[in-house]
Amino acid sequence: MIENTKCQCGHNNPLGTILCEYCGRPLQQDNAEQSSIDKEMRYEGKARWSQKAGKKSIIDHIWSFFSSVKIAIYLILITLVVAGIGTIFPQEDFINSTTPEVYYQEQYGKLGEWFYRLGLSDMYDSWWFFALLSMIGISLVICSLDRIIPLYKALKNQKVMKDIQFIERQRVTHQQEIDPTQKEQLLSDLVAAMKRKNFHVKREKDALLAEKGRFSRWGPYINHVGLIIFLLTALLRWVPGWAIEDFVWVREGEMQKIPTSNYYVKNERSFAEMYLNQNVVKKYQTDAVIYAPDQNGNLHPVHRQSILVNHPLKYKDYQLFQSSLIPELGGIRLKVMDRKTGQEKGAFLVKLTQLAVNQQYRVGDLRVRLLEYYPDFALDENQQPITKSQEPNRPALIFEVLEPGQQSGEKIWVISGENLDQITKDNRFAIDLAGLVMVNKSGLMVRTDKSLPFLFVGGLICLIGLAMGFYWQHRRIWIRVKENKLYLGAHTNKNWYSLQREIQQVAKGCPLDIQLVRD
Amino acid sequence: MEKIMESFLLGTFLLYLFSSISFMMGLTGKNTDAEVANKKANRWGKIAIWLAIIGVVFQAVFIIMRVIISGHFPTSNMFEFVAFLCFASVLAYIVIYFMYRTLILGAFVMPIAVILLGYASAFPKDIQPLIPALQSYWLGIHVTLAALGQGLFTVAFVAGLIYLLHRVGGEEKGRQPFYLEMVLVILLMFVGFSMVSFIAQAVGYQTTFTHMIDGNQVEQVYKLPPLIGPYKGQVSNSSSGWKEPLFNVPSWIEGEKAASKLNTTIWAIFSGLLLYLIIRLIIRKRLSLLLHRVVKNLNHELLDELSYRAIAIGFPIFTLGALIFAMIWAHEAWGRFWNWDPKETWALITWLFYSAYLHLRLSKGWLGIRSAWLAVGGFVVIMINLIVINFVIAGLHSYA
């Protein structure tokens, strides 16, 4: 079918145009019905690339696909449903288990097993969820580009004098006979009344165009730009070095290297504070000092700050967050007893975390040397001592006690929770537990994220767009007097009721009787 | 001070209740003359809107006093949040009222405010100390704005509901009147639950069970009489005669408070159904049919736009409060701006739902009935996030 794109008014329109760019007359006969006007007015009846007639290339097809709002809504709904399904059971990040393949089945039965098998247990990091979000991003770009350019052109070159048919076909429309001698007075009254309502009014012969809030039409596109910046930034986070997330445990009094950096963090003190008389934590705090190396590799303190939940430490690009705090066995206080006299010779502190074999302690006039250390003591099948882990769950130590001048002394075993008096009956000395020393260990999350300012800007633009689009509206009123008859048509992109009420208020001032809605 | 604060809360409740009654008074009656009926509705409506405004001021005083007493913004547990949501809904209605001067919404918003405040009061009301993660000024900003957005969505839901009552409520048969009736029954379940909780609280009912979870003996406190008890639970302490459960849950329901949550749900369902049955016996027709008679003379185009307008106003506020500020706070508290925590995910789902609504309405021309059903659906999503996510699915946000 060859469509005639030349309008009766003589204007030549591009192929695919629905309403004449010049006078607004419908160009295709099947569009001439009242019901389709809303659809046509949405983009001013302009031809969009996605509606290009004739032979379409692959790119045109992809473009048409993503430019459809229907597809965009489907993408939103699919994402919505899928995201919801992912919350049925906790994600792998939140479970207390290192073996998700067993965990889900054990905890949630058959359903849990399928949840894991279908990849729903780690879905927000999966490639297909990523693909879904990317498609929304592509749809955002193409939908916006496809519409904003024709819309911009159309709104920039508006004609004041519109075809009567165009005015009559608007959703809000009115016509009435007028006294030709009153015409001038009426039109100037209308201009004044509409100006009072903050409309920009243009006049061309016997036609008026009143318009306000056009900028709100750009709101959705600005909002989409913000969302695109946001989504792109989320992609950038995959670039190495842009977003680092690591974790470091630091015991009180110790210093640790901050992963991925040259800095060190020292934990001077860390503690938890409870509310008075209540079993609720009030505060987790770590007093931290950052050390940086100079040219010679010597460490110097460069930053000092208390880290609290909601108050992370910030130094250069790095941020340290208080993520965890647990008390841990840090040292054992031991006392040396003389078995003959029953006298205590003295006590010494064994710091479990800084323990070295052959380390010596002075206790009175005695020297105590550490021979062996098993943090997590057990016996293997040959009854040989081993350690199950490096955690001080059941520390066992072998000491040698030397009297002044002695080169070798007697060996003494210390195993936590065991009384070995019977085994070492012949020994002169005994080493007994005098007390435990607990230290707090702070778990600090290490973060550097260069994408944050971009995310922030994206969010801000998105909000500006939303506010423009939703807190203002684009309203236009066309008025034309032809052959003793006044024609009025009005269009808005939203809030039709308010527009109609506004027209009624405008009409009230001039002697026009327009009743569109009940007040 | 706390006594005064509590009387302000009670005052708020009564003012909202009287406001609802006053709105209702204006709508009911057998005036066949439209003019007379209109005048009557206006007279009662004016009284009602003033009661609502005084109620909001009372609740604002309550909130300020609670801030002074506790030192933090009262949005940190279930009672505080639901009460604030109620406050936000009434505030949103008053704003919409001054934009459109429409009284009719109030006749439904105010009863819903009463239901919300009643529902809030079913949860422990005492001031709880803040855990470290919540100690931030963002608690006031993020939660408040999110709740304001949700308050506007609540008003949109109410307008949509009235629209549906107007358009399809009068139909004798069909799917839509059926679903509409279902929505009303679910609302009655909230009422039923609040009433049962109120009675149980008033008489100081409490029963404690001991039972085993993973080999550990735990205690479970029931604030409502046990219809269903924990698996192999033993009553260790009870305040009254009703202490033995009628049933026990099967062994696979074994979570920490799973049995008492299930018990609460059953109470809500049955008390709601009982209320519905009583209403049916009194009015002898479908509830939606009765309400349809009340609203049938309204301007449905206005209702349609009101519903949309409330969402249009609420959407940017919700975006700012529930997503953007949420991300900023999450980054400060946890080091990550997005965790895919269930509450967060459902905030995103709410946002996606309303953005689908807006695209369907603005680009696809979904107006009227379809748009109204979507406004109802959006409220369901909000309620899922508020109730199901808090009680069934635990996460970083389940503080209540």
From TrEMBL, chain A:
It comes from the Bacteria. The keyword NAD does not apply. It is a multi-pass membrane protein. GO terms for biological process: cytochrome complex assembly. It is found in: Membrane. Keywords: Cytochrome c-type biogenesis, Membrane, Transmembrane, Transmembrane helix. Residues 69-503 form the ResB-like domain. The chain crosses the membrane at residues 71-89, 127-149, 221-239, 452-472. Pfam families: ResB. GO terms for cellular component: membrane. PANTHER family: CYTOCHROME C BIOGENESIS PROTEIN CCS1, CHLOROPLASTIC (PTHR31566:SF0). This is Cytochrome c biogenesis protein.
TrEMBL record, chain B:
Residues 76-167, 268-397 form the Cytochrome c assembly protein domain. It is found in: Membrane. GO terms for cellular component: plasma membrane. Coiled coil: none annotated. It is a multi-pass membrane protein. One of its GO terms (molecular function) is heme binding. Its main location: membrane. This is Cytochrome c-type biogenesis protein CcsB. Keywords: Cytochrome c-type biogenesis, Membrane, Transmembrane, Transmembrane helix. It holds the Pfam family Cytochrom_C_asm. The chain crosses the membrane at residues 6-27, 47-69, 81-98, 103-123, 143-166, 178-200, 265-283, 306-330, 345-360, 372-396. It comes from Seinonella peptonophila.
